[in-house]
Amino acid sequence: MRALSLVCSLNASPTPSSSHLLAEQIMTELDDLGVQGEVVRVADFDVRPGVETDMGDGDQWPRLRERVLEADILVLATPIWLGHPSSICQRVLERLDAELSETDDEGRMLTYDKVAAVAVVGNEDGAHKVSADLFQGLNDVGFSLAPGAVTYWVGEAQQGTDYQDLEKTPDAVRKTTRTLAVNAVHLARRLKEHPYPPG
Asked: Given a cut of 90, is residue 125 above it in pLDDT?
């Protein structure tokens, strides 16, 4: 089984990123469960605005889309900005919208039988709202969600501490990250054995 985390930090590599750190921690948990994974920073690619699988003119979303379709589990990792997912995360959802018209021989979206999960970081309130927004979008474009499909950390409001600045991972975050991984793998394995029927 394979997993892919799309990190939607506004900063390209190699700038340190709390979203990237949490995504890597999820991949460590998935690796312990026998799932191979990779973490990709979306800002490292030229992903054009639009709702097609390929917007042309050097658009690099097709390269990322190929990795999405190869994965059994997709993790979207985003910071909170002004109470919302990052603009890059919103762009990923907009590009995934193209999957609504991409189907297999049985008329099912290519994202069916794939599991999605979410990671959210920030130093302001909003993790539940952000995850709810992403859950709806991911489900709309064909992904399934296991129970506990989000792990998050939010620091004290109006303070400057980032997740990556913490001396150690808080127990609550560690536990929710583990739950996300275990449940996502369980569901992905079930769907691999028993795919959804044609509609």
From this structure: no
Residue 130 has pLDDT above 80, yes or no: yes
- Measured CA to CA, the distance from residue 45 to residue 31 in angstroms comes to 25
Q: What structural domains does the chain harbor?
A: 2-193 (3.40.50.360)
3-state SS, one letter per residue, for 125-157: CCHHHHHHHHHHHHHHCCCEEEEEEEEEEECCC
- Report how far residue 41's alpha carbon sits from residue 8's, in angstroms, rounded to the nearest whole number: 6
**Residue 78 neighbours by CB distance under 10 Å:** 32
Q: What is the DSSP letter of 197?
A: P
Structure letter (DSSP) for residue 12: P
Range from 92-96, 136-140, 158-162, 177-181 carrying the lowest mean pLDDT:
158-162
Q: What is the pTM of this model?
A: 0.96
Enumerate residues 6+ apart whose C-beta is below 8 A from 177: 22, 25, 26, 29, 119, 151, 169
Sign of the Cα torsion 132, 135, 139, 145 reads negative
